[in-house]
Fold this protein.
Amino acid sequence: MIPKETIDRIYSTLKIEDVIGDYMTLRRRGANLWGNCPFHDEKTPSFSVSPAKGIYKCFGCGKAGNAVNFVMEYEQCSYADALRQVAKKYHIEIQEKELTEEEKLQEDERQSLFAVNDWANHWFQSQLWDTEAGQNIGLSYLMQRGLREDTIRCFQLGYAPDKNALYYAAKKAGYKEEFLIKTGLCGNSQYNNDENNEENKPARPFDRFRDRAIFPIFTISGKVVAFAGRKLNESKQGGKYVNSPESSIYSKSNELYGLFQAKQEISKKEMCYLVEGQMDVISMFQAGVKNVVSSGGTSLTHRQVVLLHRLTGNVTILYDGDSAGIHAALRGIDMLLEEGLSVKVVLLPDGEDPDSFSRKMNAADFQQFLIDNSQDFVLFKTNLVMRDAGNDPIKRVSLIREIVQSISVIPDLIAREVYIKECSAMLGINEDTLLKEVKKLREDRYLKGKKQAAGSPAPTNNITPAAEGEPSALMQDPLPEPKETVSLRLKPKDRLEENILNLLQVLVKYGDYPLFEGSTVGQYILDELNANHIQFEDPLYEKIINEYVAHQADEGFKAEAFFNNHPNSYVSSLARELMSDKYELSRMYGKKRISENVETVVKMPSDADRLNELVPQLIYELQLTIIKGKITNTQLAIQHAQENEREEEITNYIMELEKLKNVEKLLGRLLGNRT
């Protein structure tokens, strides 16, 4: 148990921006910091960290809390473990009851697996540095590969001896056989293969990693989840590489090798190099290119792309110059583009990989080579078409369609148009032809997404903008054209939608205007929506809120200009309609009674002149409409319960109805008794 005094010290020492900054890139906008939420997929930052308040809040998925809550949520660990992790970061010693190894393993399975892996990682390192075999075989191999001592220690490389030594050492240290097998450190043959074993007794577990150089695989926060082992004696049986199997703490599709070591440099450089293998990462890191990670020798996964996007919006892929390397690059590019990343490619000379090539050059020359040979993916793919297709028209058509496919997945409208222009000029194809093809592909994906969505459960209020693929293409210019749809939105189907449109109108027109002390119109609206747990079901309405959240602190931000010129045509079309005079909230002119029989026409104050009164009023009206809806639903529920003679439900609903009516009266008073 951690003493209260220690907990208080942890909280008083930590800085929330430092703790969360270890997991994701945060950029300051005004008083707060913003980034892509690590708890749901998103392309526009809606995750806010307030250093002054010591809290975080995601306006997309609703997650919120303090620094310790964040660690608990991200690492899926207990409160005590989160406190220990934060304390370790700030070198705060925790004096608590000393647990035995057995007690540590009994906390829960995940923590037990982490504990076993952590112990094994230190054991592999001690075998490398402190044993004769480790120095003569393991360390000798790593240094022959050109690695320096500081690099080996940075990546915590180790050595596994050619015998079942780890199993016995782990048992002696008090670790259970069950967890040695579940982590994959040990395998378990069903029976002993010894010919003299007449009774066919069950065998002891065997070390999975024997006579191998060991590469630990870390989470972004530095926990060891798995190992990769490289064979040192080529004459022996077995594959060149052995990897930990998947477990409750490790999924290879969720991890990027080297991310723990590279995360700060990725944030600093705002760019990441992506390679295939562990040695590629380590050699490039040693050559001074520290913002580099590996997909682990497998095809890039969506989860890995999302993980990258939380740290940077720019990725450069390094691949071998052979045909297989080129086509592997193409497969990964579309996934990165669809996530909204800016992608470049560097092709290495034939027969070279990042490991071998970086060792043939000095660090400065290698870094310059990467800069000089970095190609935008459109140029790269178009050159590939021209080279591979030659004079074959059928092959040329097929490869051009591949280029158009890549362009079509890009979520940003302006970026798509720029790439279409470049592609048109390079290939000599009419721009309109390419544009129509891109539009058709996007429409097909959108319709496919709608079909899939039709068979899915109905959406809830908790909309995640641009996170679920093409069904969210509403925010990415699906058909029909915006003017045909947006104009219909300004004919509200009910009072609730009218309230929402009124509020959005004020946001897009006056969001940056000052309101009360130290607040703007937009900040006030966001705070009120958040405080009352109000979210919009319509993705376009929610998109406008999230766009404001993401850009309100941009230098020189003006809400009206921002939304008027927004690259998403749906957003800009709706905003322009809301900004137009025909949708003015307050009439410009009204009648004023001078006496019983005399009226005169006078100019009424504009919306901008009465924001202090207007904005709170719109919030109250929205709340009142929501409360009225809840009252109606509760009355229907009471009627249904009475028909079915459910006395307990009737009582609960009546109590709920009374609370709702009290809130209704309060809002009515705030609105001048206009209920």
Observations:
- Confidence is low (pLDDT under 50) at residues 190-198, 456-489, 586-595, 600-604.
